Amino acid sequence: MGRLYFLMLLLFSFASCKNKKGNELDDSQNAIAKAGEESLHRDELYNATSLGLEDKDSLSLKQKLIEHWAKEALFYQEAKTKLYESELSIEKQVEAYRKELINFIYQSKIIEANLDTTIDIAEISDYYNQHRDNFILKENIVKVNYIKVPLKAPPIEKIKRLVVSVNPADVNQLKAMCAQHAENYFLNDSTWLFMDEIRREIPALKDQPDVSMYVGRVVQYSDDSYFYFLKIKDVKVKNALSPLNFEKQNIKKFIVNGRKTALINQYKQILLEKAKANKSFVVY
After folding, report:
1. Which residue ranges form the domains of the chain, and what is each CATH number?
2. Which of 52, 126, 228, 283 has its CA 20 to 30 A from that of 93?
């Protein structure tokens, strides 16, 4: 189906260009189909598709392509009779789009060659402090220690003992075991997660309200397949200021986008100043 769609587009684009030039080919000798005022020619079909004449599947595909061409041609012809003259005058719109597309391609090349994407933590912190109103939480977020381990995992009993230990050596051992056996886990104290994500992970919490997710709460239980452990380390509620490390990636994107805009504006200003200097820009 993907190949057929591509061939249809290719065929119609090719045939339309020919017909808009006034049917450059001799209709009486070369036309294989006619739809209203437009004709489709044999070489247009075969050059566009490389179809053979004898192959049964190719003949079936040829018929589909011809019918698609006819539907598009007839639709186009009716559109020309139903639209206002102002709606048919699309040259300005096409030229405007062409300029935008060319500018976009050139801007991308300038940005790729010149943009500095190095961003240090001080710049991220400054941006955060200057735009605090833009970093208000729309959802509750939490820091957690969380693991989900299959009950069939060989070290499951040891994992159950390690999750309640505060010994740094035990914590490191737990992380190593989770990396090997857990289906999912979060043991990074700096990582903020959406509260709803945690609730979806643990069936027992699925229908519990947000107020049940308080700092210090521990959930530890098993179902038929998994052992779950959750300890809530911190909570930030909706409409509060979002933490800096939760917004770090977003801030990097904002800074880079700002640099892109500044770079292009600076480049355009240089072009304007050059044009003024060499008199190629004149205001009458």
Report:
1. 2-83 (no CATH), 90-134+247-276 (no CATH), 137-236 (3.10.50)
2. 283
